[in-house]
Amino acid sequence: MQRNLNIVISLNRQIVRLSVPNIVSNITVPLLGLVDMAMMGHLDNPVYIGAIALGGAIFNVIYMSFGFLRMSTSGLTAQAYGAKNKKEITMILYRSLAVAFLFALVLIILQYPIQWLSFKMLDGSEEVKMLARQYFYIRIFAAPATLGLYALNGWFLGLQNARIPMIIAIVVNTLNIGFNFLFIIGLKMTSDGVAMASVLAQYSGLLLAFVFLWKHFKVYLVRYVSSVIFKADALVRFFRVNSDIFIRTLLLILVLTFFTSRSARISDTILAVNSLLFQFFFIFSYFADGFAFAGEALTGKAKGANDLPLLKKTIRYLFYWGWGAAVVFSLLYFSFMEMLMRVLTDNDALIFTAMDFKWWVIILPLTSSAAFIWDGVYIGITAAKAMRNTMIIASLLVFAPAYWLTIDTYGNHGLWFALNLFMVSRGLLMWAWAGKVVGVINR
């Protein structure tokens, strides 16, 4: 009895130790988004909100599609750490950074066709699109820093260190906000200033990450020949996991981008309203991801050590924390929605319109919490194929039909309904699949 109690206490301490720094680092991202929106929301024309919404949507597709670099690196590193395989820990770092910088170079080279295709798919007024293109051509040059940070932060987390990614995130986003004030308030720039601030902040973060790597993890910076780093069977596993997570992430971002695009098709006002309301979802999602990231590290470590009882116990307590956070956020949004909206904009017409859709935002933490926690678990045990399959079902067989069946009758309410149903289905599908994928480590 006492031994089990000690295990539970220790496990919850580890969850808190890993999740709190991740929550702090994650929450700086939507707070930065709030600052961006608030600065644009207080300018004299709502097209600036639309510009960074469309430009941000493009980079959500681009950068979050490459989120597999962080996710796979985190899961694979955690498993190598649990297995006490120092050489493999080093190899994963080198492979991840090499892939990150290679893909960043490709993005910069292909920026013109990427821009052309993106704006063919996105709706919005010509003025909004013009400003969004300007935003795109500046921010694309942050690609090497952004993808490099994905690889490094995933590697740090896999080594059970959430403190370093937290410090990096705080520094990056603090600098980003400072650059925003410099460019927008000081130099009277608009959406182009937001993009420039992002580029400078990301490279500052990459430099800081390398400083931490050299100072705290020099033991892993050993020299290996390229034939060992890029060993065929290791690369096959690395890219197999990455490709499945890439497909899963791409579908997720396409759903969220579709949400933004269809908002723009309804009207510029609805685009601005949904962009503002969506900030509340991002706040919760990055908070919930703190527990998911802790789940990646802890479940990956348990799999590497081949400890199935610990893995199952970890999953159970992760859900306790995740559901608790969801209830708190729903109550917060229920109580203070209008007050929080006024922080983002002083446009009474936008606030009045947004209140018609507030209930969808209030319930969104409850409908999406399970999906976030399961994401962390599946990434930690590298059940990437199952993640991919559940996402295919949720996006193509749940979200798409829900949208098309409701949009003509219910308008923007139909769009929010489809999004909530999509999140519920993801959680339920991964729950149904869990018995099969969790048991894999015993085989």
Describe the protein's architecture and organization.
The protein is an all-alpha fold and 443 residues long. It has helices at 2-41, 47-65, 68-82, 86-109, 111-121, 126-139, 143-158, 163-186, 191-216, 226-229, 232-266, 268-304, 308-344, 348-354, 358-380, 384-410, 412-438. It has one domain (16-442). The protein contains 17 helices and no strands. Helix 1 (2-41) packs antiparallel against helix 12 and helix 8 (163-186) packs antiparallel against helix 9. It is globular, with a radius of gyration of 21 Å.
Observed structural traits:
443 residues; mainly alpha; 17 helices; 87% helix
How large a portion of the residues is in β-strands, by DSSP E? under 5%
The mean pLDDT is 84
Helix content: over 70%
Find the count of extended strands (DSSP E, 2+ residues).
0
**What are the low-pLDDT stretches, counting only 5+ consecutive residues below 50?**
none
Main beta sheet:
none
Rg on CA atoms, Å:
21 Å
C-alpha termini separation? 29 Å
- Total DSSP helices: 17
SSE sequence, one letter per element:
HHHHHHHHHHHHHHHHH
> What overall geometry do the principal axes of the alpha carbons give?
globular
User: Which structural class is indicated by helix and strand composition?
Assistant: mainly alpha
Number of domains: 1
Q: How would you summarize the topology of this molecule?
A:
Blueprint: H1 2-41, H2 47-65, H3 68-82, H4 86-109, H5 111-121, H6 126-139, H7 143-158, H8 163-186, H9 191-216, H10 226-229, H11 232-266, H12 268-304, H13 308-344, H14 348-354, H15 358-380, H16 384-410, H17 412-438
Helix pairs in contact: 1-8, 1-12, 1-13, 2-6, 2-11, 2-12, 3-4, 3-7, 3-11, 3-12, 4-7, 6-9, 7-9, 8-9, 11-12, 11-16, 11-17, 12-13, 12-14, 12-15, 13-15, 15-17, 16-17
